[in-house]
Specification:
Number of helices: 10
Helix content: 40-55%
CATH architecture of the largest domain: Alpha-Beta Complex
Shape: globular
Distance between the termini: 44 Å
Strand content: 15-25%
Bound molecules: adenosine-5-diphosphoribose
Number of domains: 2
CATH topology of the largest domain: L-2-Hydroxyisocaproate Dehydrogenase, Chain A, domain 2
CATH superfamily of the largest domain: Lactate dehydrogenase/glycoside hydrolase, family 4, C-terminal
Order of helices and strands: EHEHHEEHEHEHEEEEEHHHEEEH
Number of strands: 14
Length: about 300
């Protein structure tokens, strides 16, 4: 019996798109990768470079670069990174006007070639761009998801581990809400080797870690000056793509469309979800404290404003 090859399209062959492709190759998560960019030749050149890493990392799939969406046909997962990145002093919201046009354009072209794909959206501001992909594609809500929580939680876990001098992989933590200043790194649920961080760190230390997590993207932009983070954003998207392509059913924090979960409706927001072959297979709800609810409501207000600005 012929087995269908798993096909991943990455739109935008810039910093994040190429990092995602590189992680996909090194993790061997699919048989075909199509890298797409509007700039003639850019994706072709980057794909050639990436494909030449295959003998060194053991990837035996096919990697192509193109500006032609016909080659993306029947993709299983489409990662959207096309758009502008931040420069120092810019918030993610400052990107909205330009990126909404770009994301609309790429969604139309990609969706018509791959009607059964699952979209993973990275372009900022993520929570509004994922809404844009949802509206423009007409895809069911489970097939459209935003990448933010995996990245924000990885940052949170890193800072906790550094503070305690322990292995980052032994830190378990969840960041919910918007990918922006109002994101909610949950303190109550963060653990190290099963022990709550509140048992191990002072309130002052925890507050500083939470603040640094909320500002982690801007901290990197401030140093880079010409762009934003790309290595961990790319890997975070691949963590999600892998769970979908391999039907792993990982529980990962992702921007999912909410219809009453956590008392929120009509927006995409970072919540824990089960990711499998059908995309967002479940939103994992749990009881928040009244303080957490209040903090999350700030995310909702901020996302609603972003969505309003998309004009959709
Ligand atoms: N179609 C396809 N590709 C496009 C389009 C389009 N209509 N418009 C722009 N692009 C491509 C650019 O040519 C560029 O190669 O998107 C790529 C973006 O790459 P970078 O400028 O390197 O930006 P990057 O750091 O990858 O960030 C991309 O992800 O994390 C977010 O905030 C970030 O919104 C930004 C996005």
């Amino acid at each position: 019996m012929e087995t269908k090859s798993r096909k991943l399209t990455i739109i935008g062959a810039g910093a994040v798109g190429c990092a995602a492709a590189q992680w996909a190759i090194s993790r061997n998560i699919c048989e075909e990768i199509v890298l797409v960019d509007v700039v003639e030749g850019l994706a072709v050149g980057k794909a050639l470079d990436l494909s030449q890493s295959a003998p060194l990392c053991g990837f035996s799939g096919n990697i192509i670069g193109t500006s032609d969406y016909a080659l993306t046909k029947d993709s299983d997962v489409i990662i959207v990174t096309a758009g502008l990145a931040r420069k120092p002093g810019m918030s993610r919201d400052d990107l909205l006007e330009k990126n909404v046009q770009i994301v609309k354009d790429v969604t139309q072209k990609a969706a018509q070639n791959s009607p059964n794909a699952c979209f993973i959206v990275i372009t900022n501001p993520i929570d509004a761009m994922v809404y844009t992909v949802f509206k423009v594609s007409g895809f069911p809500k489970n097939k459209v998801v935003g990448m933010a929580g995996v990245l924000d939680s990885a940052r949170y876990r890193t800072f906790i581990a550094k503070e305690l001098g322990v292995a980052p992989k032994d830190v378990s933590a969840l960041v919910m809400g918007i990918h922006g200043d109002f994101m909610l790194p949950l303190v109550r649920l963060a653990t190290v080797g099963g022990i709550p961080i509140t048992e191990l760190l002072s309130k002052e230390k925890i507050d500083a870690i939470v603040k640094r997590t909320q500002q982690a993207g801007a901290e990197i932009v401030g140093h880079l000056k010409t762009g934003s983070a790309f290595v961990t954003p790319g890997l975070s998207a691949i963590e999600m793509a892998q769970s979908i392509l391999n039907d792993e059913k990982r529980i990962l924090p992702c921007a999912a469309y909410l219809e009453g979960e956590f008392g929120i409706s009509g927006v995409f927001l970072g919540v824990p979800v089960v990711l499998g072959k059908n995309g967002v297979e479940k939103i994992v709800e749990f009881e928040l404290t009244s303080e957490e609810k209040e903090l999350l409501s700030r995310s909702v207000e901020a996302v609603k404003k972003q969505v309003e600005a998309t004009g959709l």
